[in-house]
Amino acid sequence: MKITLYQVDAFTDRLFAGNPAAVCPLDRWLPDDILRQIAAENNLSETAFFVPAGNAFELRWFTPVSEVDLCGHATLATAHVLFRHLGYEATVIPFQTRQRGRVHVERSGDRLVLDFPAWMPVVTDPPPALLAGLAPKPRQVFLSRDYLALYDHEDQIEALVPDHAALSRLDVTGIIVTAPGREADFVSRFFAPREGIPEDPVTGSAHCTLTPFWAERLGKTELYARQLSSRGGELFCRFAGDRVKIGGRAVTYLEGKIDVPEP
To answer: Taking the model in full, what pTM does it have?
Structure first.
């Protein structure tokens, strides 16, 4: 059977930047093993699959090795496909997720804005594997869904070379490293070796933690963020109590068909 596949660069306004995600619209859910194999074959940090469900869409995300609970850039890419390629006419797209409930994406000018849960991190003692995986040592470590390692300067984030083998021993989705930015309110990088992603180019879900963290530290609710991967990306964030709004742009790289076995 043939399935349409889009590849979209998310959290950027130009090709070959931001975070590439594959998006596969489906009429019905395929067996999980087929979804996993498609994601592994795509070999991108995430492949999103969605199915119409009443006035919403059921949405799931897979890395090359596992299903994840929440993914920002692939949600942004999915909304881009619905608005740009599939004729979705309303301004807000509701998505139903398996582990995080309802999330929304709103079209606002040339940006798409994610409505995601806010995860305020708490101070924690850094486990040995975290300190072994990050050099130099962070100033402070926090925990939400992910570990957050705080540094003093943007230069430290740019120069950091993680030990992925050490970080893969941590029982969390990922590791965020962050510092105040020179031109942005804050900068970050994100490592998820347990999920088959040594470094994620731009990570929307990490900003569920970063947005409330920096909003509290900087005393402001509107924040401009940059992720300092080799591809780079920008995010426009707003802290809204128990929710965060994460805005970005997206561009289509390809549209094609893939062949998969009949279930």
So the answer is: 0.96
Nearest to 12 by CA among 245, 261, 231: 231
Judge whether residue 201 has pLDDT over 90. yes
pLDDT at 262 over 90: no
Closest CA to 180 of 150, 209, 202, 160: 150
Respond yes or no: is residue 262 known to be catalytic: no
Please tell me which residue in 41, 46, 195, 255 is annotated as part of the active site: 46
